[in-house]
């Protein structure tokens, strides 16, 4: 047992672990199985985002009809059909891009990195909106049954709920979903009862509704004409685009699905599409059958529930539970933003559009940096908009349909390229082309109609994110070029064998060198040690941490490949040191926290080689800029502080890189 394990945890350490959960054991062969989601749990964690949009999407579309509510039935049919079309399109994305990433991966692979960064940036803003609008809608639903005098507490309550979700998600995805699953099931049960009651007990109103539809059509044909009716319908249909906003969540979060992932993802998509199409479509029918009209301080669904359950025993309580479960489901839906948003960030970080630290996993195997950033941005947006769902749904829909449109365009190109290999390519292509037409229509109309009411804000925010991504990518590219020059200079340096390397002498002076992959950076550090301290060190022990990030955390095979790659690099360093006449060996460990693991390995090695000094390299720039610390980790300095506190001499060798 190591010293760290024997040391009792402090009070704050115990409290922290109680709140955020214990670290995961990386060598557990069943780790991925335990953390992965079965279809039902995936439906709860990711499908809830789509299903919950029935709380605000249909209402926005119905309100947009104004006095022409006879069109609501047709709007319900169009909404249900659109849900199935977009869901089918995303099922094809799941099938052909099974490693997750959804719209960002499709746009990057099929349309190029420029389209990819636009799609990814829109998705990131979208997931901030997902969290914000879901929590704001949750508060609207719950506060429908709270006296008006308390409504000014909405934003404060929304912020508290956001903090709770941040904590749950830092603990782990499956843990947070398991806590929220009962809420989801209560929503499903109560809303099935409400919707079936709304239709089955009001069949006598179907004939009058048909007459109202016929009368409304005749009146509008004579006043505004067929083209006017079509424009009115398309406008309402587009402004209800919030109904479809969670459909992409399943394809983006495919990494957390249980094997076989593709089948699990497609089944989850089917559950989500069926439940959303049924709920949204029947809601429009119920609005029409019961003649639901807006009431100040209440959502349309709250008005519907009050009307339906008024005559029931304890009807007010049943109505409250129904709408409370709707508000609670919206809280569950915010979960999708915390699940998928950090994954999009990590994919973009791996491609150098975002700081690389956003690809890192915590000891609980969650993307903590991304979770904290999204949660903080959502809280800021809640304060900015005052928790207004009307303002948020506009901002939300625009970004969603930017990604939807690029995804449909990318998949259309994908099937055109596969026309010779896939006999059903034309059928798939037609679905994606129809989806593209619908998504572009909704995007254009929503942007045009709501540009002055908040649409411009989301376009500005997304443009700023895209601009920052290009600046980050440019910086990493210049650093990478500098590192490449270092590789070209040092990796091909001919080194002749200096006789037989000496045997390891544990009492001799030893250099402990921290390295990553085999590169000019590590070779430069080794040469610097030898030139700065000539004939000082007889032994060298290379230490490297096999760091698990979101790019490698996809299965046991990927982790094994990562460990093999790290060992291969260390063996190259050992071979080079022995050629230079030094006794050499290596140490490695698997971890998510480089600093913690490296410090532990260094201390263990120093106990074995008591006359040792730790060396590590650090990139230095001619002019240090404020953003360098964000874009480049401070691992070397963090390790130095920890080891020097423990009495182990640690030297940082500067590596100059031209940028």
Descriptive overview:
This protein is mainly α. The chain folds into two domains: 26-408 and 443-474, Up-down Bundle (Amino acid/polyamine transporter I); 510-656, 3-Layer(aba) Sandwich (Rossmann fold), CATH 3.40.50. It is built from 24 helices and five strands. The protein has helices at 3-6, 11-20, 31-35, 39-52, 57-64, 72-96, 102-111, 113-143, 154-171, 173-200, 206-223, 225-239, 249-252, 261-290, 300-309, 315-350, 368-385, 389-417, 425-490, 520-532, 556-579, 594-608, 628-631, 635-645, and strands at residues 510-514, 539-547, 583-591, 612-620, 650-656. It has a five-stranded parallel β-sheet with strand order 3-2-1-4-5, sandwiched between helices. α21 links the parallel β2 and β3. α4 crosses α10, α6 packs antiparallel against α14 (261-290) and α8 runs antiparallel to α18. The longest helix is centred in the C-terminal third of the chain and has 66 residues, at 425-490. Residues 1-7, 16-36, 361-366 and 549-555 have low confidence and may be disordered.
């Amino acid at each position: 047992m190591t010293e760290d394990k024997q040391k009792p945890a402090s009070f704050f350490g115990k409290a922290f672990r109680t709140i955020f959960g214990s670290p995961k054991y990386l060598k557990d062969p069943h780790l991925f199985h335990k953390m992965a989601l079965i279809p039902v749990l995936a439906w709860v964690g990711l499908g809830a985002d789509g299903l919950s949009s029935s709380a605000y999407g249909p209402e926005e579309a119905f309100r947009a009809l104004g006095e022409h509510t006879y069109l609501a039935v047709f709007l319900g049919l169009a909404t249900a059909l659109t849900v199935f079309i977009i869901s089918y399109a995303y099922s094809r994305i799941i099938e052909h891009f099974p490693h997750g990433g959804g719209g960002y991966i499709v746009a990057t692979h099929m349309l190029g990195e420029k389209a990819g960064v636009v799609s990814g940036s829109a998705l990131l803003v979208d997931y901030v909106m997902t969290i914000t609008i879901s929590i704001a809608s949750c508060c609207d639903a719950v506060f429908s049954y709270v006296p008006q005098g308390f409504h000014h507490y909405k934003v404060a309550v929304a912020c508290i709920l956001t903090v709770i979700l941040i904590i749950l998600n830092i603990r782990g995805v499956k843990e947070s979903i398991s806590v929220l699953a009962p809420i989801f099931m209560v929503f499903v049960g109560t809303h099935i009862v409400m919707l079936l009651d709304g239709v089955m007990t009001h069949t006598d109103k179907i004939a009058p509704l048909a007459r109202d539809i016929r009368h409304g059509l005749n009146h509008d044909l004579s006043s505004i004409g067929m083209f006017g009716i079509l424009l009115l319908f398309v406008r309402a249909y587009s402004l209800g685009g919030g109904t479809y906003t969670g459909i992409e969540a399943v394809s983006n979060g495919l990494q957390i699905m249980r094997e076989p992932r593709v089948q699990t993802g497609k089944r989850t998509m089917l559950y989500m599409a069926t439940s959303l199409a049924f709920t949204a479509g029947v809601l429009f029918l119920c609005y029409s059958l019961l003649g639901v009209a807006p009431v100040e301080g209440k959502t349309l669904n709250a008005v519907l529930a009050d009307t339906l359950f008024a005559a029931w025993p304890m009807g007010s309580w049943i109505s409250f539970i129904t709408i409370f479960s709707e508000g609670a489901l919206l809280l569950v839906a915010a979960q999708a933003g915390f699940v998928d948003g950090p994954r999009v960030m990590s994919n973009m970080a791996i491609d150098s559009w975002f700081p690389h630290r956003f690809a890192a996993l915590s000891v609980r195997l969650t993307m903590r940096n991304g979770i904290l950033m999204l949660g903080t941005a959502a809280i800021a947006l809640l304060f900015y908009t005052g928790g207004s769902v009307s303002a948020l749904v506009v901002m939300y829909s625009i970004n969603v349909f930017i990604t939807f449109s690029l995804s449909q365009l990318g998949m259309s190109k994908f099937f055109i390229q596969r026309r010779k290999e896939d006999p059903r390519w034309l059928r798939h292509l037609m679905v994606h082309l129809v989806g593209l037409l619908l998504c572009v229509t909704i995007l254009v109309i929503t942007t045009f109609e709501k540009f002055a009411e908040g649409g411009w804000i989301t376009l500005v925010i997304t443009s700023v994110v895209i601009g920052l991504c290009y600046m980050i990518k440019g910086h990493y590219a210049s650093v990478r070029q500098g590192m490449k020059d270092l590789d070209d200079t040092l990796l091909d340096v001919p080194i002749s064998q200096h006789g037989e390397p000496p045997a390891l002498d544990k009492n001799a002076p030893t250099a402990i060198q921290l390295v990553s992959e085999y590169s000019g950076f590590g070779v430069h550090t080794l040469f610097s040690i030898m030139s700065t301290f000539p004939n000082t060190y007889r032994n060298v022990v290379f230490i490297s941490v096999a760091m698990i990030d979101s790019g490698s955390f996809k299965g046991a095979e990927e982790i094994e490949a990562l460990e093999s790659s790290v060992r291969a690099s260390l063996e190259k360093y050992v071979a080079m040191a022995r050629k230079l006449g030094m006794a050499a060996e290596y140490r490695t460990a698997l971890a998510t926290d480089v600093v913690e693991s490296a410090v532990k390995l260094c201390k263990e090695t120093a106990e074995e080689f008591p006359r040792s000094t730790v060396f590590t390299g650090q990139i230095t720039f001619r002019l240090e800029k404020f953003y360098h610390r964000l874009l480049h980790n401070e691992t070397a300095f963090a390790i130095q502080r920890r080891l020097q506190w423990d009495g182990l001499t640690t030297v940082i060798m500067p590596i100059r890189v031209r940028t």
